[in-house]
Amino acid sequence: MAYAYLDNSATTMTDPEAVKAMLPYFTESYGNPSSLHSFGTEAREAVEKARAQVARLVGAKPGEIVFTSGGTESDNLALRGAAGAGKPGANRIVTSNVEHPAVLETCKSLEARGARTDYLRIDRDGFVSPVDAARIVSERTAIVSVMLANNEIGTIQPVQEVAVECRARARNALVHTDAVQAAGKIPVDVERLGVDLLSLASHKFHGPKGVGALFVREGVRLSPAMTGGGHEKGLRSGTENVPGIVGMGKAAEIARENLGEDAARMTRLRDRLIDGLLPVEETFLNGSREKRLPNNANLRFLGIEGESLVLLLDGEGVAASTGSACSSKKLQASHVLLALGIPEWQAHGSLRLTLSRFTTDEEVSRAVDATKGAVSRLRAMSPVWKKIKAGEPVIGVKGGGHEHV
Amino acid sequence: MSMYSDKVMEHFRNPKNMGVMDSPDGVGEVGNPVCGDVMAVYIKVKDGRISDIKFQTFGCVAAVATSSMITELAKGKTLEEAAKLDNKSVSTELGGLPPIKEHCSNLAAEALHAAVKDYLAKRAQTGTRPAH
Ligand SMILES: Cc1ncc(COP(=O)(O)O)c(C=O)c1O
Fold first, then answer.
1. Which of A42, A111, B13, B45 lies most in the core, judged by the most C-beta atoms within 10 Å?
2. What's the pLDDT score for residue A402?
3. Angle between the B102-126 and B61-74 helix axes, to the nearest 10 degrees?
4. Directed axis angle between helix B6-13 and helix B61-74, to 10°?
């Protein structure tokens, strides 16, 4: 069965070109880059070539790229590293309330050790305000971390403006952005953004999983994520994941070379998805239509629940994801959708469809048809939909041990 | 592999007794859309037995499958027997549920019990005795 894979914000297919580039580093040039012999120097050259490839993707110098195990580790290194190296008394973090858990949970963990976090709120379209950032930062701020593009709703944040405001008010604060979802979808340039730290994850742009990078601006001091043999400028000790790094480098090169074309193509397909599904009654777009990643469509269909929708779609050959996840007592609507001000009962009916360079028109057509079918099937069995259609209030049912006001 | 048993997926894909019922004798609705699940069970009662049963559910895969299963289990049962059906009966028949989804089987049993209670309350109100 033809399958439409529309969950590319979760992860992407590794580009066969990247796989091809990686293979020799398993069985032929398998040396340790720190070794002096020719096996070692071959591996070292491969790692440094990849470093240059990744640096070019974000407009950095090769020496400013630190390889990590992925987006989560890059975010951790940025936040923990900045908190650990900050001036005494500078123990404050400024971030937004729609960051990835890799940032939010790290902030919480740092809070337990005495840091204090201030959260920038997003507006109804999903944007933080640089003015709010200016109001919050101070000489006591160690790091400001605002993601470049949101993983759920694809909203592109005004990181450049936030960075300008922070520079003016908090000379010692480092500015970090999580660009994990942005790289390969929109132009990313560390100079234009004016950031000190920027996180990347290879598997989100057709590189292999388990490898990522942190851009660390020249002269910026962090405390290390891993201590040991002093690899990666002492920030991340441990023998390099040579095949992974090579694959990430190749994927970065391909992403950079094709960015314009890929973005235009994904934007067209994304708009086909959105325009194909928005006419379904009681259906809304989550997040801004304009400043949105070219590969992200996120809609909510009132009266249905996301997990059911995703599993019905899976049965129809469409891979997608939702904005709600089950926890022990209740479904947990995504913190991002709730931050947008979407009522919880509506957030449960959200569907995220995310595209890649490899997505085809056929996949989009299949997804639109299958989604329409699945939504009407689920609505036919939904007592909530019945109420919506009858104009009755939706909230106020009791029971099920679900206490709610 | 899915987190759900084949039986759960089968009931989710092809739910039994799904839909609304014209003039039911009892209706039970439990849950809260804010929590992501609402179940409604509609019953018709004849000679002290559940002669027809339907459900509607807003919720996850487990919520749909447990509703489908409770209606299958309750169909044809006496009201006393139906009142004894509980979450364990449902999850056992479904070949188990993931731990985080166990509350769905509670909800399904509650919806059925609420429908039976509603029937009994209505009957008490109108003073009509069930036909023998
Ligand atoms: C915005 C964002 N940051 C960080 C991560 C974490 O990346 P990884 O899974 O490679 O650690 C993700 C991936 O889901 C992401 O979307």
1. B45
2. 40
3. 50
4. 80
Q: What is the ipTM of this complex?
A: 0.90
Contacts of B34 in chain A (CB under 8 A): 343-345, 395, 402, 404
**Residues with pLDDT less than 70, chain A:** 1, 324-330, 396-405
Domains of chain A and any CATH numbers = 4-10+259-390 (3.90.1150.10), 16-257 (3.40.640.10)
| Alpha-carbon gap, residue A177 to A274, rounded angstroms | 28
Q: Which domains does chain B have, with CATH numbers?
A: 6-123 (3.90.1010.10)
What's residue A324's pLDDT?
A: 64
List pocket residues of ligand 1, CB cut-off 6 Å: A 70-72, 75, 100, 102, 147, 151, 178, 180-181, 201, 203, 212
- Closest atom of ligand 1 relative to the A201 alpha carbon: 10
Top mutation candidate among A99, A151, A206, A352 for ligand 1, by most atoms within 8 Å of CB: A151
